[in-house]
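Progress note, sequence design subtask.
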């Protein structure tokens, strides 16, 4: 007989092999510890398995309208066995740790190596991108961009994310009304143990 509590599911182990184990204290076997639930990665997103995990690293940003800068970043990608991946990203300044940027969204595998990404950013900007994944390399290009009235006039985004050995790397290119598509960010990461 199991008892119920309201505790949350906690991620125990991210694996690039597409298996994620969760420890939950929601269901407990009487007299025993928490139950471990194993969720298989849905076949629709199996080509994106290399992204699953918590990644930490540093990057550099530059753009014609701003001064160059450096940042620390954490990216988390996880799944619940459904045909999409959850994605969150946050950055902070290297010099003083102040928060710089955050975004969150979803990656969906839609067949034949095609991928869709939906991302919302705290700056009043939403991005719908399409692209491809093969050989541990994801390429995305914005299809639709939505902005609040006070958001910056971004007109295009391209992302490339790839695994180089055990290092995850990315480059982001951005266009604005007054600037053509230009490299804006690049970073590299290592998977953490959490």
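Output:
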């Amino acid at each position: 007989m199991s008892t119920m509590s309201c505790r949350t599911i906690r991620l125990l182990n991210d694996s690039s092999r597409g298996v994620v184990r969760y420890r939950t204290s929601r269901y407990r076997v009487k007299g025993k510890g928490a139950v471990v639930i194993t969720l298989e990665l849905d076949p629709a997103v199996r080509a994106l398995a290399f992204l699953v995990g918590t990644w930490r690293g540093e990057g550099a940003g530059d753009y014609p309208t701003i001064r160059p800068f450096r940042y620390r970043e954490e990216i988390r990608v996880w799944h619940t066995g459904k045909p999409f991946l959850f994605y969150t990203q946050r950055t902070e300044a290297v010099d003083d740790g102040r928060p710089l940027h955050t975004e969150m969204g979803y990656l969906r595998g839609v067949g034949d190596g095609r991928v869709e990404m939906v991302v919302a950013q705290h700056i009043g900007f939403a991005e719908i991108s399409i692209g491809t994944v093969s050989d541990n390399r994801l390429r995305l290009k914005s299809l639709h961009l939505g902005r609040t009235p006070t958001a910056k006039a971004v007109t295009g985004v391209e992302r490339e994310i790839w695994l180089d050995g055990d290092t995850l790397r990315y480059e982001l290119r951005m266009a604005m009304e007054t600037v053509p598509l230009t490299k804006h960010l690049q970073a590299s990461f290592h998977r953490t143990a959490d």
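The chain has a mean pLDDT of 86. Work on this subtask will continue into the next period as scheduled.
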